[in-house]
Predict the 3D structure of the following.
Amino acid sequence: MNVKITGTGSYIPSNIEKNEDFHNHEFLNADGSSIKAPSEVIVKKFKAITGIDERRYAKSHLNTSDIASFAAEKAIENANINREDLDYIIVAHNYGDVRHDSQQSDTVPSVASRVKHLLRIKSPKCVAYDLLFGCPGWVEGVIQANAFISSGIAKKCLIIGAETLSRVIDPYDRDSMIYSDGAGAVVIEATEDEGGIISHETATYALDEAHFIFFGETNNPEIKDNRRYIKMYGRKIYEFALTNVPLAMKSCLDKSGYNITDVKKILIHQANEKMDEAIVKRFYQLHEMDMPEGIMPMSIGKLGNSSVATVPTLYDLILNGGMVRQEINTGDVIIFASVGAGMNINAIVYKQ
């Protein structure tokens, strides 16, 4: 028996926020002081570092649970299964349902229970729960589902990554331009077909790194409300990721029994184009190789960083012809990898 992805789906919001839309923003340093550069210059430098031209925001009437259910519907249809046969629904997110213009995250009931409700699944034996694991949440959900199926506890699982980060960004923080909204989902099943999940690796670094990404106050000292926003220490994250993610990927590949030359694609969390490129280059340097051209598909330029949604969305896009000059074929060995708040790292070697 193998554990394979049998269906994929994604939801990409229709609202496009372009870089030019930030030209009128007032960006401030973390201490509230002014940044000594025009917004146009800040945005141009941001593009050079992150590779982001535009990002997607959910319409105001939609919440994380809504867009998660949209992606899930597509994955269920693509897998051609009866939704009542699902044993688990695992929803990775970080902030729950944050209604438009709200100051509070809503996680009761869980996003997973809300998704199950929206999917109109009747069976009480379909267990729905949330997974908070930073940006690597969807990858970790796949790892957990693999454990359920491999142990005989489950046969079919639905794993979703969904987030509406546009609801938790500080408009005075230039880092806010990174974040976006979106959802991606997969159905995973026990199958006699070849391939599937070959190996996986997970690590949590929390001694010194736990608060590299955190919830903090606005950069504008004149605003006195109690609202909190997603914040990060970008340089520390970059250095941490560059040191630790390639090692985790190598460990995962070593456990798989495959050679580095067998890897056809690396689907890495779309966090920052320069950082992702540096991570994958370092991974190949560990094998005394140059990074092959086209090995690392990137969607961040048009979709931004939607946290837990980036990897499953990228995977779905490639499988359905949504990425120019990118494809994944039957028998291909690929790597899923992510890094994010916690600080958490994970990777999966998967054979299509």
In short: The chain is about 30% helix and 25% strand. The longest helix spans residues 234-256. The chain has two domains: 2-194, 197-351.
